[in-house]
């Protein structure tokens, strides 16, 4: 069944709960509902509280917005067939005085590598896992569900979180097609959380979850005009998330404002007995990140620029102009800027990245072999009997929709040739080097040497160094390419650089400083409102007014 048919069937077969008689007077009289392209958590919740709309109506509106755009943008792979009945149950709870969290009744998308124990599939975009079942929800999905968030659907991604091929494209998966961005026709959506980026950017849901190993939250957040938080590895559980690397993977929010992202992070953060890395959290329960939304938080802050960590590329002038302006805004907001807070191991990072199999690559390959097998071993149903990387490689080579060899499996071929996994001493040697390049030789060293609270750099250049040491990043919209920009295409004809395409500013920190980084990002966002300055070329037209029955 196509997405469209499934969605309409879900809408038709669902009989609306009539909660209201004297509700929504304000909105009827004023005729004004918030634009779902921009609306944030607080306004959505206020409407649910006042009875101006219900969670069912909101869910319907988002389903119709997905249906309107999906044939072009392909941001969503599956709509949850239970979304409307879940929303109805949450409406009934609210009517009865039960409010589970600040996001009770609010629909979100989750990336198609985060498993749910319901009718939705978790495939990382591959047919090999279609129909596979998990014993329970991924911990982050379970936390959202228990908080009363409607799990609206699964967002498309670069297949296997971009750990498969050397010549595929950002946002392509066999089970989902090619995602494109909404700010320019045939736009490269970046990746690997491509559908989460596009879906959140044009309001196909309140917000989305993404995952990052090296750039996969912050890069698509930057390109799609969003705030993205890549938490410290261990702040959010990875249990039942299809892995690349236990040392680098992390789950985080992709949202239209710092405030919305902070609401989501507050729900998904926390310890989990099914992910030992979460035991390193320095508290019993994580903070309420919405308390960090302080307009003045840049006052007295010390912020460094690791100038050697990026070189301006030929099409980067607009990014660097915006970066210079951003630095001035940070200064005006009371921050002390320390320029040339350089990464001491930058030369080693470059050498390591350029090597066919440097220390960083070894870490990912060895972790992947072990961590993938561990995920697969937890499946309670596994129709294609995929138990290992070799099984999945073989499946991919023999299944036409996986588009092999047109899209190769170079990453797996090299991983399979490594000859060991992350229980080997050679892994540990590579990991110590790679960690030190990102830690003492990277972010941690630069922070310490200059007594800094954070580093800033353009998001296009931010993910690689912190990735090696599991360190956090928050990206916030900073600007977009001007109308006279010459269009540049990447692999397979997607437009990477072109008029109207957004880009972000990244704040980097040590382990567990998400409150501080959220404060800085908020103070910057509230002074710039860069997101509002550029609009998508393609946006859904369905609004709440279209689904509210009067
Ligand atoms: C309403 O709340 C009461 C008391 O908390 C509870 O017993 C009842 O099951 C609730 N009903 C629904 C439909 O949630
Ligand atoms: C999950 O995959 C199965 C097997 O292909 C399919 O029958 C089912 O409809 C899918 N679920 C959703 C929500 O699309
Ligand atoms: C967590 O660590 C303990 C001690 O090393 C180990 O026994 C357990 O299996 C680990 N749990 C998970 C879920 O990895
Ligand atoms: C906001 O941040 C400023 C600067 O750090 C601080 O002085 C102030 O107390 C903070 N406000 C709140 C409400 O925490
Ligand atoms: C930092 O890096 C920049 C760019 O490579 C370089 O120009 C500058 O001299 C470096 N500063 C220090 C203190 O190392
Ligand atoms: C790891 O880094 C060290 C130090 O730079 C280097 O000597 C070694 O060759 C690297 N190992 C690999 C596998 O690239
Ligand atoms: C990892 O390597 C060890 C030692 O060779 C081996 O016993 C184990 O089965 C391997 N695990 C996986 C998932 O390949
Ligand atoms: C590889 O896949 C093919 C087709 O799916 C299957 O017939 C064959 O048994 C598989 N080979 C191995 C070694 O798993
Ligand atoms: C991708 O690489 C494979 C070889 O690894 C090649 O056969 C295939 O033609 C390439 N695809 C494209 C579109 O270049
Ligand atoms: C675009 O216009 C700006 C301002 O007029 C100019 O500085 C810049 O060089 C132009 N860029 C291109 C690629 O033509
Ligand atoms: C569930 C669903 O409709 N998925 C669609 C995602 O996009 C691909 C490519 O366009 C379609 O083939 C799938 O049917």
From TrEMBL:
Protein name listed in UniProt: Glutamyl-tRNA amidotransferase subunit A
Transmembrane spans: none
Keyword list, A-Z: Signal, Transferase
GO molecular function terms listed in the Swiss-Prot or TrEMBL record: transferase activity
InterPro entries reported in the protein's UniProt record: Amidase_dom, AS_sf
Domain (Amidase): residue spans on this chain: 57-467
Superkingdom classification of source: Eukaryota
Organism whose genome encodes this protein: Hyaloscypha bicolor E
Signal peptide residue numbers: 1-22
């Amino acid at each position: 069944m196509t997405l469209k048919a499934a969605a309409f069937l879900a809408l038709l077969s669902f009989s609306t709960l009539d909660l209201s008689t004297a509700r929504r007077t304000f909105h009827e009289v004023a005729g004004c509902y918030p634009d779902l392209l921009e609306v944030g958590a607080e306004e959505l919740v206020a409407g649910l509280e006042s009875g101006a709309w219900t969670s069912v109506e909101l869910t319907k509106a988002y389903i119709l917005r997905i249906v309107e755009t999906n044939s072009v943008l392909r941001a969503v792979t599956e709509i949850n067939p239970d979304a409307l009945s879940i929303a109805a149950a949450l409406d009934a709870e609210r009517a009865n005085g039960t409010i589970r969290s600040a996001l009770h009744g609010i629909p979100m998308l989750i990336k198609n590598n985060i498993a749910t124990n319901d009718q939705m599939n978790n495939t990382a975009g591959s047919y090999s896992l279609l129909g596979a079942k998990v014993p329970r929800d991924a911990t982050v999905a379970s936390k959202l569900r228990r908080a009363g968030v409607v799990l609206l659907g699964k967002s498309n991604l670069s297949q296997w979180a971009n750990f498969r091929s050397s010549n595929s494209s950002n946002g392509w998966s066999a089970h989902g097609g090619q995602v494109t961005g909404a700010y320019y026709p045939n736009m490269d959506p970046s990746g690997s959380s491509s559908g989460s980026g596009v879906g959140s950017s044009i309001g196909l849901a309140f917000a989305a979850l993404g995952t990052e190993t090296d750039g996969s939250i912050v890069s698509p957040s930057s390109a799609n005009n969003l705030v993205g938080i890549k938490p410290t590895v261990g702040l959010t559980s990875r249990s039942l998330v299809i892995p690349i690397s236990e040392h680098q993977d992390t789950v985080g929010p992709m949202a239209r404002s710092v405030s919305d992202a902070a609401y989501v992070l507050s729900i998904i953060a926390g310890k989990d007995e099914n992910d030992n890395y979460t035991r390193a959290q320095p508290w019993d329960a994580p903070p309420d990140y919405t308390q960090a939304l302080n307009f003045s938080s840049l006052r007295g802050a010390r912020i460094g620029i690791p100038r050697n960590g990026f070189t301006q590329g030929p099409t980067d002038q607009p990014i660097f102009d915006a970066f210079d302006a951003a630095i001035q805004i940070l200064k005006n907001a009371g921050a002390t800027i320390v320029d040339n807070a350089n990464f001491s191991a930058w030369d080693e990072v470059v050498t390591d990245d350029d090597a066919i199999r440097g220390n960083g690559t070894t870490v990912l390959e060895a972790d992947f072999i072990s961590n993938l097998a561990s995920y697969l071993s937890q499946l309670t149903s596994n129709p294609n009997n995929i138990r290992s990387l070799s099984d999945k490689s073989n499946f991919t080579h023999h299944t036409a929709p996986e588009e092999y060899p047109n899209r190769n499996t170079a990453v797996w071929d090299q991983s399979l040739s490594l000859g060991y996994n992350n229980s080997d001493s050679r892994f540990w040697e590579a990991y110590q080097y790679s960690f030190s390049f990102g830690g003492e030789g990277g972010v941690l060293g630069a922070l310490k040497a200059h007594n800094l609270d954070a580093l800033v750099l353009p998001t296009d250049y931010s993910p690689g160094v912190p990735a090696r040491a599991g360190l956090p990043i928050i990206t916030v919209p900073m600007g977009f390419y001007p109308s006279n920009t010459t269009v540049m295409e990447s692999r397979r004809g997607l437009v990477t650089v072109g008029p109207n395409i957004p880009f972000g500013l990244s704040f980097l920190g040590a382990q567990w400083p998400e409150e501080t980084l959220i404060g800085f990002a908020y103070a910057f966002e509230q002074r710039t409102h860069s997101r509002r300055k550029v609009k998508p070329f393609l946006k859904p037209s369905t609004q709440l007014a279209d689904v509210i029955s009067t």
